[in-house]
Design brief:
Layout lengths: L10 E2 L24 E3 L10 E4 L2 E4 L14 E3 L4 H9 L12 E2 L6 H4 L9 E3 L3 E6 L2 E9 L3 E9 L5 E10 L6 E4 L7 E4 L8 E6 L5 E5 L1
Parallel strand pairs: 1-2
Antiparallel strand pairs: 2-11, 3-4, 5-8, 6-9, 7-12, 8-9, 9-10, 10-11, 12-13, 13-14, 14-15
């Protein structure tokens, strides 16, 4: 993956919608050098049971109270490629990724071996992750690839077992392995990286004060 910083060409602003799928087990013509495409973030599930984006209001079940024990800060999930494909094909924002999806090889540690930055105390995974950024909320975060694109995407896990796309970053023409990274005790911080702390090859997933979840390049 090029070390040059990517430029996000456009934000695709779309109405939020709930996407149902089976609950996650354990929780859930030439791309050339085209820049990454980021979707606009969607609001977090509202405590009042309704959310809005661009004037579109979608009824969302009330987020049940939860503790860090119920939702660990970070936890593994057994999301399958077939389940991921259903989520991706249900999201117009991810259409450029295609249907031929795959996860990155957990044994490929290029994101560490290519880096000279200190990674002591940082956990890395190239597999799907369940992240609880705050009490009562849980997010499915995935780094994966299609034939000609790599992407990082996050879905709110809804109380009824469904998912709603929160944000995504598609890197067209890039297929280098990406990992998710975090420090176990730092709940609010989740990174994605193809080369740990290398310029232009690391970014983060976070929830803003207004409840929007964003995936950006650092």
């Amino acid at each position: 993956m090029s070390g040059a910083r990517w430029c996000i060409a456009a934000f695709l602003l779309v109405g939020c919608k709930a996407i149902r799928s089976s609950p996650v087990a354990g929780a859930g013509p030439d791309a050339g050098t085209a820049p990454p495409v980021a979707t606009a973030p969607s609001p977090a599930p509202s405590e009042s049971g309704a959310t809005g984006w661009l004037g579109t209001h979608v009824a969302v079940p009330q987020v049940p109270p939860a503790t860090s024990v119920t939702h660990p800060f970070f936890s593994k999930t057994t999301l399958s490629v077939d389940e991921l494909t259903k989520l991706v094909t249900s999201a117009p924002e991810l259409a450029r990724v295609g249907k031929d999806l795959s996860f990155f090889d957990p044994g490929d540690g290029a994101y560490i071996s290519r880096s000279t930055a200190d990674h002591e105390g940082v956990t890395f995974t190239s597999l799907p992750l369940l992240w609880s950024p705050s009490f009562g909320r849980q997010v499915l975060v995935v780094a994966a690839r299609g034939k000609t694109a790599t992407f990082v995407a996050a879905w709110w896990v809804l109380p009824d077992g469904g998912y709603r796309l929160a944000s995504s970053l598609v890197m067209l023409g890039e297929i280098a392995p990406i990992a998710l990274a975090w420090r176990p005790g730092e709940r609010a911080t989740l990174w994605w990286t193809s080369c740990w702390q290398c310029p232009g090859e690391t970014g983060h997933v976070s929830v803003k004060e207004d409840g929007h979840l964003v995936i950006v390049q650092d």
